[in-house]
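To whoever picks this up:

The nightly regression suite flagged DDE Tnp4 domain-containing protein as changed. Nothing in the input moved, so I suspect the structure step. Input below, exactly as stored in the fixture:
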Amino acid sequence: GGYRLSADMLRELTEQECEYRFGVDAEALLQMVVALDLPEVIHTPNRYRFSGVEALALTLARFNSTGDQFELSAVFDRPQSAISEIVNIVVLHIDNEWSHLLDFDHTCLLSPTSLQAYAAAVHAEGGPLRGVWGFIDCTIRRMAKPTFFQRQAYNGYKGYHALKFQAVML
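Regenerated output under the current build:
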């Protein structure tokens, strides 16, 4: 097995390891637990028990990973089903408590006029396409071997078929 997450354990990790696993350093993660108003103890429907710190850390680790729950299970000494349950509970908590702050201002920042301005700015800076207005982190998503266009979907670097989304277009 791996190790269970706690505030003390997080503080023992190096900053690099913490950012690699969770995308944030230990102090930021601990502050997020308080800011998000996560309960000190969370019980799942299947009777798993998590601290608020462990729940948020597992959620961040899940979102920061490539989708391999087996690795998370081995590293954090929790069954895959428990990790899945707690991630869903944390996401629902954040949505229920904080969704009013997560709503995009589609009438200003993401209005059609603004998106066209963003796309024009990207193109003016040397972007080859006129419709690109944003970029994402280029995470490679593994996929089943397609029936058609196998060669186009094959990722030689990773050695499997995958999709890699890199830009958001109009």
